[in-house]
Amino acid sequence: MENGAQPFWEKTYRSESQTFSVEPNATLKEFERLLSKQAGALDVGCGEGQNCLYLARQGWTDVDAFDISVYGIERVRRRCEAERLKINAFTADLREFQFKRSYDLIMSFGTLHFVSREEWKEFIFRAKENTGHGGIHIMQIFTDTLPASPDISEFAIGLAKDGELKELYEDWEILQFKSYTFEDEHPGVPKHYHASNKLVARRK
Q1: Are 133 and 201 in contact (CB under 8 A)?
Q2: Per-residue pLDDT of the chain in tens (204 residues, 90 and over written 9)
């Protein structure tokens, strides 16, 4: 990243290996029913695209997705082409991302902690401002309840305090909030644990 080092997924994105789950996040599957398939969706830090691809497969017609990884976005575009799906996938850095429209669904899974706490909080403020009334946010971030695992410790510079994410949505309707730990595993990376907060909130 900024110091020239690269996280493990930059290598696997360039291979045929599946870096993360092919299945969409279970929380997205649980709550996407609250919005119409014509709703505007934004997938922040989409990686290989399992979540934005899921929406497109479900018939969502207005899906934007971005990631800082060129290789991740290339993989999303190849999958869209192979399946004849429509997703506006592009490279961007969430620290510099400028909203040009509002959305009904903004989601981010396992991405925010890779920028500083001040930067991800600023992004959330901007995302909230650019969400329509009744719109949904699904946000998941790693917390410092556990130290960052060795595979990401160099890059996870913005681990949240437990409950910190929820505090930023006190003016919204909290539909779900979870604080938990989970076991994780990636190609070439031993099993390890993360502490996480996940929030689903609706703008009033």
Answers
A1: no
A2: 445 577 665 566 666 666 566 789 999 999 999 999 999 999 999 998 999 999 999 999 999 999 998 888 998 999 999 999 999 999 999 999 999 999 999 999 999 999 999 999 999 999 999 999 999 999 999 999 999 887 788 888 999 999 999 999 999 999 999 999 988 766 666 788 899 999 999 999
Q: What is the CATH number of domain 22-202?
A: 3.40.50.150
Query: Of all helices (H) and strands (E), which one includes residue 140?
Result: strand 131-142
pTM for the full model?
0.89
Q: What are the domain boundaries of the chain?
A: 22-202
